Amino acid sequence: MSDQIILNNENMVTSKTSVSVLFAGDSGDGMQLTGTQFANTVAVYGSDLNTFPNFPSEIRAPAGTISGVSGFQLQFGSKAVYTPGAKFDVMVAMNAAALKANLKNLHHGGIILANTDGFDAKNLKLAGYGEENNPLEDGTLNDYTVFEIPVVTLTRKALVDTGLSTKNIDRCKNMFVLGTLYWLYSLPIDTTIETLKTKFKKKADVAEANIKAVKAGYNFGDETEMFSQHGRFSVDPANKKPGVYRRVTGNEASAIGLTAAAKKAGLELFLGSYPITPASEILQTLSGLKKWGVKTFQAEDEIAGVLTSIGASYGGALAATNTSGPGLALKAEGLGLAVMLEIPLVVVNVQRGGPSTGLPTKPEQSDLFISMFGRHGDAPVPIIAATSPVDCFYTAYEAAKIAVEYMTPVICLTDGYLGLSSEPMLIPAPDDLADITPKYVKERKPEDPPYLPYKRDEKGVREWAIPGTKGLEHRIGGLEKQHETGHVSHDPENHALMTKLRAEKIERVIDLVPDQTIDNGPEQGDLLVLGWGSTYGAIKIAVEQALAGGCNVAHAHLRYLNPFPKNLGEILSNYKKVLIPENNYGQLIRIIRDKYQIEPVGYSKVQGLPFNEMEIEAKITDTLKEL
Amino acid sequence: MSDTNTQLTAKDFTSSQEPKWCPGCGDHAVLQQLKNAMADLNLKTEEVVFVSGIGCSSRLPYYVATYGVHGIHGRAMAMGSGLKAARPDLSVWVATGDGDALSIGGNHYIHTIRRNLDMNIILFNNEIYGLTKGQYSPTSKVGLKTVTSPNGVVDYPMNTLALTLGSGGTFVARVLDRDGKFMREVFKRSAQHRGTSVVEIYQNCPIYNDGAFSVFTDRERKADTIVYLEQGKPLVFGKESNKGIMLDGFTPLVVDLGDSSVSKDDLWVHDENDKLKANILADFFDDPDTKEDYLPRPIGIFYVEDRFTYEDALDDQIAQLQSAGEGTLEELLSGPSTWTIN
Ligand SMILES: Cc1ncc(C[n+]2csc(CCOP(=O)(O)OP(=O)(O)O)c2C)c(N)n1
Ligand code: SF4
Question: Which positions fall inside the Pyruvate:ferredoxin oxidoreductase core domain (chain A) (predicted)?
Answer without folding.
Answer: 526-599
